[in-house]
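Q: what sequence does this backbone want?
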């Protein structure tokens, strides 16, 4: 992706919404693009109740993002002038305080997640079920942990069995091209995506 963007001079924006704390070749996810975006929504490893963060090494771009997300108000001691279409995307102080407190605990959250992932890996191995682990040269934050069942029938019975016994599991997200919104859009056979959609089940993945 980076090579393609470089070749065609396309700015890369990295959607790292779920990936805070993860690494690729020992480099933090979110640092590969012109800018990266993290989500601090309630279901993420670090939450501020909602919202997120934009990260960039490009100071000018950072200033631009700050300006646009604070209603594009031209800095002035008392005049309210907006020099372009802006958005009230600033994070309220209360949420920001929560985000700071959570970020301070990020390492311990990830340690807990990685220890849970190890326990899951040995448990499911003993049951002959594939627990998805991180790939070589990567460090996963194990935000959402999942198992891969043999086929759709097996994943459906796994979902039924676990939820009937009070263990909240759910299938991986439905593929976007299946949504009526995108049904007419160009796509290829999606062989791998369809294969995984039938088999991947998300399992409880708390940081505690
Ligand atoms: C890959 C990805 N992008 C973007 C979003 C949207 O983030 P938010 O929930 O903070 O709006 C999510 C949310 O789960 C996500 O998983």
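A:
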């Amino acid at each position: 992706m980076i090579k393609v963007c470089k070749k065609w001079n396309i700015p890369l924006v990295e959607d790292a919404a779920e990936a805070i704390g993860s690494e690729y070749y020992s480099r933090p996810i979110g640092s590969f693009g012109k800018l990266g975006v993290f989500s601090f929504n309630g279901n993420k490893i670090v939450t501020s109740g909602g919202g997120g963060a934009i990260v960039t090494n490009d100071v000018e771009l950072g200033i631009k993002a700050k300006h646009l997300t604070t209603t594009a108000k031209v800095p002035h001691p008392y005049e309210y002038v907006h020099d372009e279409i802006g958005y009230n995307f600033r994070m309220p102080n209360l949420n920001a305080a929560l985000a700071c407190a959570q970020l301070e605990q990020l390492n311990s959250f990830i340690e807990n997640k990685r220890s849970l992932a190890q326990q899951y890996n040995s448990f499911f191995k003993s049951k002959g079920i594939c627990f998805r682990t991180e790939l070589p040269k990567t460090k996963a934050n194990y935000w959402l942990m999942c198992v891969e069942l043999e086929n759709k029938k097996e994943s459906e019975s796994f979902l039924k069995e676990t939820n009937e016994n009070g263990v909240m599991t759910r299938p991986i997200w439905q593929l976007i091209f299946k949504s009526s919104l995108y049904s007419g859009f160009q796509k290829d056979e999606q062989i791998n995506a369809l294969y995984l959609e039938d088999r991947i089940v998300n399992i409880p993945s708390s940081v505690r």
